[in-house]
Design goal:
Layout lengths: L1 H13 L2 E8 L4 E8 L4 E12 L4 E4 L6 E6 L5 E7 L2 E7 L4 E9 L10 E9 L6 H8 L3 H69 L4
Amino acid sequence: MALSTVVVLAISFLQVSYGLYFHIGETERKCFIEEIPDETMVVGNYKVQAYDHNTKDYMPVSPDIGMHVEVNDPDSKVILSRTYAAEGRFTFTSHTAGEHVICLNSNSSAWFNAGQLRVHLDINVGEHAVDYQQVQAKDKLTELQLRVRQLLDQVEQITKEQNYQREREERFRFTSESTNQRVFIWAIVQTAVVIALGVWQYLHLRSFFIKKKIV
């Protein structure tokens, strides 16, 4: 039972790679939010295509068309801002755990009347961003050594994910406790105001009745 739970957790933590495509206009900008642990490498692979009215399909674009990539960390600090070619990859390493905003837009000055663009984007986080074939060739590792390296990287990534989730839980608990405390204080203030108004109304009416000699 414990082993199956660990396997499920490992699978859930390692699902940190996704691919998609989206369409943008000439001056349009698309942004994505990615929750990333600290000290984690992220690699994005992309390919830009333009709509061809002759073939009624999206085709490769000219080399003049490029993509500008900007990445902001959870503190809104720019950690990457660079213009790339029509097809390629960008890489950055997170230094703060949290939501990172990844924005892409075309270098619109290089293409006019190109129509709508389709951008294929594949983002890999953590050990999924490592090219282990290149690591094996560079470090001259055997298959067993490479597998051990992958497992160690996976364990490290799971540890980072768990630490990040723990931090999120702590922040959520602090926010919940702070909210509950404010609600409690507000309830006390409301109760005090109602009691004060009741006492004031009682004294005011009592004084009014005495003046009118009703009581």
